[in-house]
Give the backbone structure.
Amino acid sequence: MSRVLNRVLSVLISVSIWVSLSGTAKAEQGMLAEIQRQPDMSRRFMVSETLRLKDQKEKVLSVIYGNADYGFFESRRMHEKVHSIEFKFVPPGYLKPIQIFLKVDHGGDTRLIFVKSNTYESPVKNLFSGRFKTKGRFSSGFFLFNFWIRDKILNKLIGPLLTIVNSNGEVVWILTNSELTLDGDPYRQIWYAAQSSDRSAFHVLYHGQKSYYQSINIFGDSQRRTDFNPSDCPNHDFVLEPGSDELVFLDFKRKHVFGATVLTDSAPSVWKTISRGILSYAFPLVYQASYIQELNLATGVVRELWDPFYFFSPKHDFNRELGSGEDVFLHPLKVFDYLKMYYNLRNPGSCFASDNRRHVDWMHANSIRHVLGKGYLISIRNFDKIIFVDERFKKIIWSLGPEESDTYHFESQEDVFSSQHDASINSRGNLLVFDNHGPSRGIVETKGPSRIVEIKLDFTTKKARVVWSFSPKNLFSEKKGSVSELPGGNVLGFFPVSGTKDLNRTGTEDRLFEVNPRTGKVVGEMSIGAEVEGGYRAVPVNSLSEDVFIGKTLPL
């Protein structure tokens, strides 16, 4: 009898667990569908409070909200009524109560008056619960990511989602758009984002079937949007100086290349392709190169600033996809393979750089930084090279890379980077680079681990050396990654490993680290669940809007 009873109990427990998990999964799938239906998802994070005034003689100066964990923020966005204040904001977190204060002027004295404490409910708690786990204490309060979310039931991806996560691992904001897709491609649709210098909005660059620039605030209000022409292919990075209407951006363009000497914008005729190819053993290749363009946000006019074919030769500049030297163009035995691919390229219909759209991803520049009054720092991934060009894009002032023609070379082979991303100049005047440690120019099949490196250039000897590095064990970011210096000197490094095809690495979680370069100590760490994919760059953010971050403690 007891044996039968135990069996019945076991079945009942199993059924209840299955029902519970099924309900959670269905709720999650429902949330994914709900997000897909709502391009204005960002507005759902906004909350409104009505704050009663007890003393009409006091003049309200601002509203302060937050707590010791999320930090406190001061806002002057409020609407005064006869006996109350209406106030809208995006909560900096959901796990802990948010305290709200009024900062008032009472007869010349400034006072803080506690009004209320409230815990708010996240509109996406079922979707993201437990997927961001943190340790330690980050300097920045928030991080801006680009994500795709995997539906566990359908095993499909939904996205892209421009997402802000606080330093406790809570999702506090999401931006979607009309191109939100189910089971899309994280490498073909992506947001590239940077925080506005005045904290009032985010500048975002969207790369997809309809690419555009947009300035949008935390409440989902679009302050400006400029669409690109279908022929433009903005990607990876951009520069927009405060108060400027000129957006400088990296742009993919293709050239049809005959024997590394003849470059055309459009495909030659069938007869010219075959006859010239057979006679010269040099069938045309379609080279995708990284141009630099300028978009006027007021007029929508695009102007070319930098043509890489003027500075680099397809014949002599190495590309890991084909090798180097003249044999790049001499493949007569592969004529049918080339022709088959080539005529699929005649009318590609979009700017996407997928494998059936070009023969060679020649350069693949992935970051651009402006040093005011001096020039632009550019990282070229497929050349394993970093270059610095002048303000007018007329000449390359210096380059760091593996070729004899480069200005600077590494003292030690161990310092050499490959497949690098996100190059910048830090407060000490050194280069700060995310070194993916990917395949090194087709010579060495490097497979990580990836690392962050600080590189010092010696202007006298023209030598370069790594003066500091950080490399988490067994983390290999094959195609993505970012690094930035934070106020105070700590370094933030993002190691996206989702989608990496490397059987030797451990785990599939993307990782975010804040490191003190003076001590080498990791002061903050975030792991991102395997269901969240496609992260490209982590942008540190101190405040969610024009509200001013005033610290972890109250000022009065």
Notes: Residues 413 and 465 are 10 Å apart (CA to CA). The mean pLDDT is 79. The longest strand covers residues 246-258.
